[in-house]
Specification:
The structure is a homodimer.
Chain A: H1 4-7, E1 13-16, H2 20-32, E2 36-40, E3 53-56, H3 62-69, E4 74-77, H4 84-92, E5 96-97, H5 101-108, H6 110-119, E6 127-130, H7 133-138, E7 145-149, E8 159-162, E9 176-180, E10 184-194, E11 200-202, E12 206-211, E13 216-222, H8 228-245, E14 249-258, E15 263-269, H9 279-282, H10 287-295, E16 309-315, E17 322-327, H11 329-333, E18 338-342, E19 347-348, E20 353-360, H12 364-374, E21 379-382
Parallel strand pairs in A: 1-2, 1-4, 2-3, 4-5
Antiparallel strand pairs in A: 6-9, 7-8, 7-9, 10-11, 10-12, 10-14, 12-13, 13-16, 14-15, 16-20, 17-19, 17-21, 18-20
Helix pairs in contact in A: 2-10, 3-4, 4-5
């Protein structure tokens, strides 16, 4: 009786981070009743009630991560800002860490990401390293340029666009890379995955519309309105990256399409990503299930679209801060093909990611139309004292 | 600032029973982050890790149900064998109980179900009441007939088919109804729902193939291979039942189609049902979300089919008893459109419902073909000592 092939699927999975990505990973795991555990500093982390256990602790602390990780079979992440040292030591103990610690280390440093792109001749905006704000000011960088903190950036934080000398107050005083501004026509993203066998699978390219005020994705369209040629180029670049990285797990890659229809890689995240939320309701396999399949070396799932879709982030409404109140759930739920995902964050603040809606229709035109009908109808506010 | 309309959706939901139906209800609730709580006697009930809390206790005990129920806003069930007395008293306290206690009481007694059918002229097989085994034997009932225990039947238990005097050992000694055997051509089911507004919504009719050995659904097809006329008749009967019952919540109704194409109602369950599991992956709204929408008086969701589907119950393999081991997960997951749901029951025994698979394809023919490919490939066994 050979059980090894099957027991692997019931391995204990540990996740660093228990935010909304963790929660949706837990929901995916629940279908197979996979035992899944989270480490998060917040007592009421979104993933809490959907897992086999939440450990309260800081995923940046060596001891905390080490102690959490040694009790699971496979350890993964839903945020890349974690103690890589602990992961490396856990790996030595024989715990499977996916994505691999060396990849997380590279992703944590936007400078190392750029070097990876250079090494493998992956098109990415030209850049220079700077150690501090004064170095940048003295560096005579032509305007406009983008400063990215090498470490700690997340959800639009750690990125400054400097358009002229008037923006000097926006320059962060931290080791950074400074990139040439691309003349952006579209922002695109692709989610790929790779398992231990080396199988690779890609979702269709999605197109993002950003809320420029907060530099967060506000609206996402799948399929992207791009030519087959651009789609194929992106797929080729993504495949190359997945192969060279030898990643085991999900990899989200963000791209710019410039005014000359040239493609540039912007950045990467080795985990489920905001640009893949629509896959829960609109694709055969969700990005969360795909991540689990990848790290458990199960066959990768079909990434095919069941329906075109629009994904809208539900952000905390400006002007409200405090205990979150959901307004308009019944209004949006009255429409066929509108799926509401609320993350259960107790407190809201302006532009905080509180949930998302996926709008699924037989054609992308209908999906866009319906999304315009429901956009803004589901609001997250707080009680005004 | 009027919040009443919205806060209702974030009411605390309590569920009597934490089995697989409870677990799938919890997963549906998780998308909106509804606070949901379960009462179940089993410490490792399937719903345990997917809820805001599991209370260990017997849902047939007055005190246990009363104490559990008084702490929630809306109380519902995933099994109908619960203390109705406690529910009635909770209702007096102002707790919303859906389905209503009087409906649960009627469903608990197959005799009362029959009387409901008679009162509303709903076609159901002719029947007689009997108090004991000896009464049935003396009753000169023409063979073959079906004995159904008035109370406590579940998952094929509490039902005996008596074909001749040789089957007398199968007659249960309990208050029963005895029904004329219908000459069954097809077994069909429909799931309907109704909210407090009186809105009614029906899923398409499904066709069931039973495993006769254990009287459990083994295979379910949606849409059913029936004429529009039969589909419409069933929809009319279901609408009538939902209206007359004034139920708030989901109602599953099982039917026989006889050799003369006449339709008979077999029985009903006022909750999510095995015959609606395919809706998770193949319909716009799952039966579990629809139940939540009904009891929270949210707009009922679209019941439209996204794709035709086949649902296969995954039963504990005969010959194995003990700690469950899942075999072949990777084999079935290699196919596009195959969704695996495992309930997480720790121990298996022959024919125990351990999970289900839904097979979703663009046509029902393709779905049938793929289901034949994967049927039996996912096995639940136990370690042989």
């Amino acid at each position: 009786l050979n059980l090894t092939n099957n027991l692997k699927s019931m391995k204990k999975v540990g996740v660093l981070g228990g935010g909304q990505l963790g929660k949706m990973l837990a929901i995916a795991a629940s279908n197979w009743h996979l035992p899944i555990y989270f480490l998060d500093p917040a007592e009421d982390a979104p993933a809490k009630n959907f897992s086999h256990g939440l450990t309260i602790g800081d995923f940046n602390e060596y001891e905390t991560v080490f102690n959490f990780g040694k009790n699971v079979d496979v350890l993964t992440i839903e945020i890349e800002h974690v103690s890589v040292e602990a992961l490396k030591d856990l790996q030595k103990l024989g715990i499977s860490i996916f994505p691999q610690p060396s990849i997380i280390e590279m992703i944590q440093d936007k400078g190392l990401q750029k070097e990876f792109f250079q090494t493998h001749q992956i098109p990415s905006p030209p850049f220079r390293y700077f150690e501090s704000k004064i170095d940048i000011i003295n560096g005579q960088v032509p305007y406009p340029y983008v400063q990215k903190a090498r470490k700690g950036g997340y959800d639009g934080k750690g990125v400054s666009v400097i358009r002229s000398v008037n923006d000097f107050h926006l320059i962060m005083d931290t080791p950074s890379i400074v990139e040439t501004c691309i003349s952006i026509k579209k922002e695109l993203a692709i989610i790929g995955s790779r398992n231990q066998n080396g199988d690779i699978s890609l979702y269709p390219v999605v197109e993002m519309v950003f809320n420029e005020q907060v530099n967060l994705v506000e609206f996402l369209q799948c399929p992207a309105a791009i030519s087959m040629e651009v789609e194929n180029q992106i797929r080729q670049i993504a495949t190359l990256i997945l192969e060279k990285m030898e990643i085991c797990g999900l990899l989200a890659i963000e791209f710019f399409l410039d005014q000359d229809n040239k493609i540039w890689v912007n950045e990467m995240a080795p985990r489920p990503h905001n640009s893949g939320h629509h896959t829960i309701n609109a694709h055969y396999t969700s990005q969360f299930e795909q991540h689990l399949r990848s790290i458990l070396n199960l066959p990768l799932g079909s990434t095919s679209m069941i329906s075109p879709s629009i994904m809208i982030n539900i952000l905390g409404e400006p002007g409200y801060q405090g205990d979150a109140i959901v307004m308009g759930l019944d209004t949006v739920l009255a429409h066929e093909g509108v799926y509401v995902h609320l993350y259960g964050k107790k407190t809201t603040k302006p532009f905080r990611k509180m949930g998302h809606m996926t709008i699924v229709r037989p054609t992308i035109e209908e999906a866009i139309m319906l999304s315009k009908q429901v956009e803004g109808k589901l609001r997250i506010i707080a009680k005004v004292e």
